[in-house]
Write a structure and sequence with these properties.
- The complex is a heterodimer of chains A (373) and B (401).
- Chain A has 373 residues and is α+β, with helices and mostly antiparallel strands.
- Chain A has eleven helices and ten strands.
- In chain A, the strands form three sheets. In chain A, strands 1-4-5-8 form a four-stranded mixed β-sheet, with helices on one face. Chain A has a four-stranded antiparallel β-sheet with strand order 2-3-7-6, with no helix packed on it. A two-stranded antiparallel ribbon of chain A has the order 9-10.
- In chain A, a hairpin with an 8-residue loop joins β6 and β7.
- The radius of gyration of chain A is 21 Å and the shape is globular.
- Helix content of chain B is 43%, strand content 14%.
- The radius of gyration of chain B is 23 Å and the shape is globular.
- The chains are: A alpha+beta (373), B alpha+beta (401).
Chain lengths: 373, 401
């Protein structure tokens, strides 16, 4: 079949998914994830090491910088599998930050910054949001000013994913009447990380304040890197959408399995239409989300289609994840509401991902613009 | 692989010859369809003589595409959908050679229109519980009862009928399948006026109608099995139905918003949400088609009907809301009129208000959304069925009402 297909996974992609699923089955442990959920700097180091060694952190980066030259859809498969187990790993943050460095960095910056990220040796994240509603990403109040031969970065970034575990921040700052992007190490004087109590503790958050002097080569690209940051955010949305598909699919499987084995009134509860129909609706939602997320990853390099596909995936997959994980709690009943059960880990991840990179409504406005509504 | 290539060559050659001998531009549709049938290109996978060449059904798509590209008439497939789309499959699978010879060609040429007589007032979702009786009388069967929701009955020459031949058997076992002459005595067709005032469907009454035994399909008591063939063909006819972006009700919604909408941000955002839902459904249909072709079909092939019914109702309702106070009116007004042959065939432009009313049927016709959810739950997800109180009971002892 030479005919190009958009939706059919290749043999290699199916292999990637099943290999990774097997790996995650051995490295992840829901009891440990629950334990991690009591901290503000959760990180599943066992899984992170395993996926790093498998070469998945730098999967979509060029091999010249330590990556594996793979496609956006291959990377999406990784996120789907990680979503199935609500893995507490800083892949999203690292991938998004790496994509900014890849898009805007000089050859020298790429060569020095990307290989340790691709190898999973260091964790990076983007620090771009300054308030709760994502205002000001185009006009940050964080400033970069000339000082000596370098730059002084001053300002506060909020809701920075994986901030408590980050080694490197990719920070947006106003400079020369535009948006500049700077790479700032986490362990230097003048960078203060305040961990937050995250709704979804498996993806830690922090506020980060900067009052730091960095060298001239900390700056990525020219003055107007706003577009590159927006592209990186869109990559994040595409990956999160696929993560939402994975977590929703897993929730559906848990619900159906429970509905087959839980008996009340002398019958499996899945034989009651009230439960069966809820599960059928979950299935429809998951299949639609799967199509939308896959489309977003597959068309990511086509800017025109991506301007539709990204907010489309955000809209559909976010609603699906929240609905399906919430319905899962309902199917399980009382046990689904307990800390000891897994359902809350999925529900929290679902709600948090629906807000990540800006709320759904913002992206629906983008979609309306893109399709002529 | 070799036979595949040979088959492809044979089909291509047959299409070339047909188009050369009967140029679509100068050939009347009926004449073209007759020639298409005789060339084995009506249903290319059927046997030679039955409108086919005995090749794989995957050549159907090629034939259709070639004919459409050549400007050949293909609207018989939709205009006589219950014959060409469903009845033909039943005849091919269960008909005798005589039956296939008698019915397939005039069906394809549109000389005879077909309808399907399954649903009854007392047998909707539970169609196997139907009550129309067929009693044997020598070489004939005498039929009494009532059918409903019969598309095209007022234009049809032939009907695909399932009737109860043995009420002492459990419901699925006492049914027999017939082809009934809709113009024969004792068959009365009445238009069934619907929510919009139109009558797309009919009620059909049987009052001592007589059917020759030669018009029975397959064995006495095999009616359910044969009916399943029809329904499977229906699913094939509905499945794989991919449409362009902005097709149908969501496109109308955008038109209304852009031409007559209020312009407020809340409505716009909600319309964008609906657009995304509809597009995700459309992409799912595309994915289903691609996975089917690649030989890796999944659950995405089964969700379309349910999803479309719910979304189409939501979108059409939202569209009327976007009209504001204009939504208080309906431009067509209400008049009771049967849907004519022309209005079925010509693309009808319904007002958003009429579309909104018509959409209520989407979650009822062709399997209610409740039944579709049962099918997804039981056949795709593997959940257990409801306990059945009629299981194993003779049909005549099953409570009805």
């Amino acid at each position: 079949m030479a005919e190009p297909t958009t939706f059919v996974r290749s043999e290699e992609q199916r292999m990637l998914a099943s290999t990774l699923r097997d790996l995650l089955a051995s490295t992840t442990d829901m009891d440990r994830t629950r334990e991690l959920s009591l901290s503000t700097d959760a990180m599943d180091h066992v899984t992170w090491k395993a996926i790093s060694e498998m070469g998945l952190v730098g999967l979509a980066l060029p091999s010249a910088y330590g990556g594996a030259d793979s496609t956006t859809t291959d990377l999406a498969i990784v996120f789907e599998e990680l979503g199935r187990v609500v893995a507490a790993v800083p892949l999203l943050s690292t991938v998004v930050a790496s994509s900014v460095i890849m898009a805007t960095g000089s050859e020298e910056q790429r060569r020095s910054l990307l290989p340790p990220l691709a190898a999973g040796e260091t964790v990076a994240t983007i620090a771009i949001f300054e308030d709760a509603h994502g205002h000001g990403t185009d006009t940050p109040s964080t400033k970069a000013t000339r000082e000596g031969g370098g730059w002084r970065i001053s300002g506060v970034k909020r809701f920075v994913t994986d901030a408590p575990n980050a080694d490197v921040f990719v920070v947006s700052a106003a400079v020369d009447g535009g948006v500049g992007t700077f790479v700032v190490a986490a362990d230097v004087d003048g960078v203060a990380i305040e961990p937050l109590n995250a709704l979804d503790p498996t993806r830690p958050l922090g506020n980060v304040s900067f009052d730091v002097l960095v060298s001239d080569d900390a700056r990525l690209g020219g003055s107007h890197t706003g577009d590159a940051l927006a592209r990186a955010v869109d990559l994040g949305i595409a990956m999160v959408s696929q993560e939402q598909v994975g977590l929703s699919q897993r929730c559906l499987e848990m619900s159906v399995d429970y509905a087959k084995n839980r008996f009340q009134f002398g019958r499996a509860i899945g034989s009651f239409q009230a439960i069966k129909h809820r599960c059928a609706d979950m299935l429809v939602a998951v299949e639609h989300a799967r199509s939308a997320a896959w489309h977003a990853a597959a068309t990511f390099d086509d800017p025109l289609e991506a301007s539709i596909a990204i907010p489309l995936a955000k809209s559909v997959c976010s609603d699906t994840a929240v609905k399906v994980s919430g319905d899962t709690i309902q199917v399980f009943g009382g046990i689904g509401f307990t800390w000891e059960h897994d359902a809350h880990l999925y529900f929290k991840r679902a709600k948090a991902t629906s807000l990540l990179f800006g709320p759904v409504g913002f992206h629906r406005d983008r979609l309306a613009d893109a399709v002529g509504i | 692989m070799t036979s595949d290539v040979n088959e492809s060559d044979r089909v291509a050659a047959a299409v070339d010859a047909l188009l050369a001998a009967y140029p679509p531009a100068t050939t009347q549709p009926k004449e073209f369809w007759g020639a298409q049938f005789d060339a084995g290109l009506a249903w290319v996978d059927y046997q030679v003589g039955d409108g086919g060449l005995g090749v794989s059904p995957r050549h159907r798509e090629y034939v259709n595409r070639r004919l459409e590209e050549a400007g050949a008439p293909t609207w018989n497939r939709s205009a006589n959908i219950l014959g060409i789309g469903m009845g033909a499959g039943v005849l091919a699978a269960h008909g005798t050679p005589e039956q296939r010879t008698r019915w397939l060609r005039p069906m394809f040429t549109m000389d005879e229109i077909w309808c399907q007589l399954f649903s009854e007032p007392g047998a909707g979702s539970d169609v196997a519980g139907l009550a129309t009786r067929a009693v044997r009388d020598g070489d004939e069967w005498i039929v009494n009862g009532q059918k409903v929701w019969t598309t095209l009955a007022h234009l049809a020459k032939w009907g695909l009928l399932v009737a109860r031949s043995d009420p002492d058997q459990p419901k699925h076992l006492g049914l027999t399948y017939f082809i009934v002459d809709m113009e024969s005595p004792g068959v009365e067709v009445r238009p069934l006026y619907q929510i919009t005032g139109e009558a797309e469907f009919n009620e059909v009454f049987f009052d001592d109608a007589r059917i020759p035994d030669s018009q029975r399909i397959d064995d006495v008591g095999a009616g359910w099995r044969v009916a399943m063939t029809t329904l499977m063909n229906e699913r094939v006819a509905i499945g794989g139905n991919t449409v362009p972006r902005n097709f149908g009700s969501i496109g109308r919604a955008m038109e209304v918003w852009n031409q007559r909408g209020s312009g407020d941000a809340t409505t716009r955002r909600e319309l964008a949400r609906l657009w995304a839902e509809v597009e995700a459904m459309r992409l799912t249909a595309l994915r289903a088609t691609e996975n089917m072709k690649a030989g890796v079909p999944g659950p995405e092939g089964s969700t379309g009907k349910l999803a479309w019914a719910d979304l189409n109702k939501e979108v059409t309702s939202f569209t009327v809301s976007m009209l504001g106070l204009e939504g208080l009116t309906i431009p067509e007004g209400y008049t009771l009129e049967p849907t004519s042959y022309e209005t079925r065939e010509v693309e009808r432009v319904m007002s958003p208000q009429r579309h909104f009313l018509r959409a209520r049927a989407n979650s009822i016709e062709g399997g209610t959304s409740e039944i579709m959810r049962n099918i997804l739950g039981e056949r795709i997800l593997g959940l257990p069925g409801e306990p059945r109180v009629d299981k194993g009971l003779p049909w005549k002892e099953v409570p009805r009402g």
